[in-house]
Amino acid sequence: MKKLTLMLAGLGIATATVPTVASAQGYGNWQPINGRVANIDRRIEMGLRNGSLTRPEAARLRSEFRQVVRLEQRYRQGGLSQWERRDLDRRFDVLSQRVRYERNDRQDRRYR
Predict the structure, then answer these.
(1) Which of 14, 65, 95, 99 reaches 20 to 30 Å from 39, CA-CA?
(2) 83-93: b or e for each residue (b if 16 or more CB lie within 10 Å)?
(3) In sequence order, which residues have a C-beta less than 8 Å from that of residue 22 and are 6 or more positions away?
């Protein structure tokens, strides 16, 4: 319980500093959404080709990927607000981390 409390406190500090860093940078360093979409799609495809992703893992990741892309399309209908950009950025970060985790979890399909 003590470890959980310390971890949550640490996350609170980390999330409190993120908006100030993002606002200080502006959106000049922000990677365009189209670039992120292409990059994540390429990483899923390469993981499937080289065997670091199993077919079920790739299917799950592609499903999550399509959900985020659909959300992006809905957001773009009225133009992207700063909140929507941050939301998409966060969702793409989470998806990117999941792709990285799944590709490195040593569940190679070639050993099954």
Answers:
(1) 14
(2) ebebbbbebbe
(3) 86
Contact 98, 61 (CB under 8 A): yes
Question: DSSP labels for 72-92?
Answer: HHHHHHT---HHHHHHHHHHH
Q: What are phi and psi of 48, to 5 degrees?
A: -70, -40
Contacts of 58 (CB under 8 A, 6+ apart): 44, 47, 48
pLDDT, tens digit (0-9, with 9 covering 90-100), for 27-86:
455 567 778 888 999 999 999 998 889 999 999 999 999 999 999 999 999 888 999 999
Cβ atoms of 96 and 42 within 8 Å: the answer is no
pLDDT of residue 32: 73
Tokens of 27: 């959106």
Taking the domains of the chain in order of start, what are their residue ranges? Answer: 1-30, 31-111
